[in-house]
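quick one
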Amino acid sequence: MVGQKKQKDPVLRPQKNFSRHAYTSSLRQYRKLYRRSIKKPEEFWGEQAKLVSWSKPFSKVFSTPKKPFCKWFSGGKLNASFNCLDRHIPSRGEKTAIIWQGEKEDEVASISYRELLDRVCRLSSALHRYGVKKGDRVCIYLPMIPEIAISMLACARIGAAHTVVFAGFSSHALAKRIQDSGAKVLITADGFFRRGKLINLKAMADEALSQCPAINNVAVVRRAKNKIALKGGRDRWWHKEMAGNFPGYSKPVAMASEAPLFLLYTSGTTGTPKGVEHTTGGYLVYSTLTAKMIFDLKETDIFFCTADIGWITGHSYIVYGLLCNGATAVMYEGAPDAPDPGRLWRIVEKFKVSIFYTAPTVIRSLAKEGEQWPRRHELSSLRLLGTVGEPINPESWRWYFNNIGRGKCPIVDTWWQTETGGILISPLPGAVPLKPGSATVPFFGIEPEVLREDGTRAKIGEEGYLAIKKPWPGIARTIWKNPKRYIETYFSKFKGKYLTGDGAKMDEDGYYWITGRIDDVIKVSGHRIGTAEVESALVSYHGVAEAAVVPVPHPIKGEAIYAFVMLKKGTIGNDNLKVELAEHVKKEIGAIAKPEAIQFAEGLPKTRSGKIMRRVLKAIASGSADVGDVSTMADAGVVQALLEGRNK
Ligand code: WT7
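structure w/ WT7:
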């Protein structure tokens, strides 16, 4: 089964000549500093916070005036854009900040820190003209082009919180996020290419905007040069806004440490996505420190993270954490298999990438195509590999280690979440011995716990709920406009401890093995999708009475979406309807949420109190005849019918 981990794997020693950070050069050093970070967190974080530049020093490292809400670096002021740009100019002005590779091979751009600063300043001025002020929200709906990073940094520069919406989300999903965040400006593009196919992004934005009257200014990047409509008085071409007379510099606004830097919507266990709120000081310190230590960043590194900036991975390890360290980030617009499964390896060779960070699903899909693809490329520039997004099965881990790292590069299996802001559990390369399939040990200041239902600690090897005992600087501070949901989702099950939603176990060496989500969240190709969101999309279709969505193991995607659909009387369940339902979900959420399989059902297994028994549905969807204990089920006959339906 995908994601299942054996604990008997050999321990791989890290490579010699690796990490040169004094404190991460051996396991002993790691343990020593880890202990100090736990015993004296204020001292530890107070020191580490010096990694970023403060325009006003903080007076208090950590406080919890109203538990579970916390504050980091109170009293301090800083600007994230200044930290990612201005402060590098004296020493790194001509250094490349972003290398951009379009989906077409010959479309390449290299942007120095100086150029990036100039473009960010120009956009900041445009945002000022649109009336964006400190404390406002700006929505960004862009493909993987440099303008997405420029937009984020321009917002940060003037103190507006950005909310990036992944360009693969539908117009409906975009509208919901604009409305919830209260954004008044949208930055989007005419279109973009995916596997050579034109995606008409502006048309989707227009559809969303018809339900978002609060947006009074739209900047449109000309990317695909497809024909679009600009609405007079509201829409303007990005390139025209960036040209013209411009004072030359836009002053970064000093922001309070706890001021929101961005909102990022993610799926939970209800039908409504939550706006995870990250703050300026804590998030920047945490993403910068983890990037520096876990990826062992050096001045000459070329870092290629394949995630889309529309997800937290791109926020933290393409934009903020990387640029704040003054590193060079590679950004790729297209699909990993466009035009062929050698694409990512060609990028590694072309730009001499030294650190490569991707998701297990990408590794599995490329491994399936065979070793000949990576073998064709010179990959000797690589010195470190990383994974994120879902558990990696040891087999894929080894394929990655042998065929991409050629047996020479450590792999950092980094566990974290949108809410955590940065990596919480991961090896430190060069110090922590690796075990294929384990995210290994906690980062400094992080105290994970594996808990039982009753809140007591699980034994070694026993699976339980993964929780984090105390806050760290990068933790999300709240859910936008919904602090109640923040408390209920994360801090209620085990009072005051952060509940991750993942299952885990710890082995005899203190290594963590993440077993996957144990709430109603599915990870499809590393993307996070709430079952309730898909269910509410399905029932919004006329003719659908009820729907229940569960994950099924999938050899490439890790998990796939399996939907049981009960139809209203008079609606006929046939293959046509299945296609229509899948299209409807795509329209409501986006292509990533399309069910892999839909099964029409006459009835769903429910307890006598009417709760859907997901455990039973999961077993049926996975093709197992063993559905476990059904003594609490209202009508046990339903199972037989569902099993027969599954086999059809
Ligand atoms: C969920 C968070 C964090 C960036 C991308 C995903 C799963 C993440 C790992 C890992 C096992 C992992 C968890 C987590 N996950 N990294 N290394 N090993 N599982 O962010 O969309 O917020 O999803 O991804 O289930 O809860 P996200």
